[in-house]
Amino acid sequence: MTGSPIGCHALVWTGDFDAAGITSSIDRTKAAGFDLIEFPLMEPESFDSTVARRALQDAGLSATASLGLPEHADVSSDDPEVVAAGAKLLRTALERTAEMGGTVLCGVLYGSMRKHLAPMSDRGRANSIEAIHRLADQAQALGVRLSLEVVNRYESNLLNTGRDALRFLTGVDHPSVSVHLDTYHMNIEESDLFQPFLDTGERLGYVHIGESHRGYLGTGSVDFDSAFRALDRIGYTGPIVFESFSSAVVSATLSNTLGIWRNLWTDSDDLGAHANRFIRDHIAAVRTIELH
Ligand code: MN
Q1: Which residues are placed with Cβ below 5 angstroms of ligand 1, an ion?
Q2: Average pLDDT of the residues in 267-286
């Protein structure tokens, strides 16, 4: 984890990503002490990457982007037209990411982010693998890496565990694609918060740090001690990004999909500064075990 950029998801600050929202979320991420901001690109067409690039340079902050595909643009669909719509949306998000100087596009890129009412079909899985391989070729040409987020069963029927993601990556077979693990989802689906990091090892490319209720870190049931020990053990150096949601900050396209109905915090600046300290303190503490 030494050298890992520590980041913050932009929905900590605002749900409205017009020019003012982009600029203020960058400034507040910087003020809270982070190195990096992750922008949700649920609607990449309308994201002003020029404004973002300039504000990021002014703040001296790096950036990544994430999204979860909608049902009508799902690359894991059996319907070729829906798959094509998904590929188009992903391509636009990738271009916006590259334009703002972003290094990684992550999240649920491989399917629609929602509660599915049936298991993934063989055709759907093959369609998803093919779409991600194509996107990875485009990403490589643009200097962006892809990371596929493992999420809980209510948000995907394809990648629910680290092992699911490793099997999927074998199918994709591309050096620009890695696994994205999130402690909130791991706390629901995995056996513990240690072994999945060891299993993914050098295939791990992105980490979300979220509490069991997605509020203040350290006030829920996620075993962060194990998670940070595991990240240190595998020598992880990729982004570590705080993700938290509250009904106090609403994005119609993301908050509703994720079921953010509760008000878990109101003071974004306090929440962000606390998370930045929490993550850096855990990294520093784990290092002392390895050093002595
Ligand atoms: Mn996440």
Answers
A1: 182, 208, 243
A2: 97
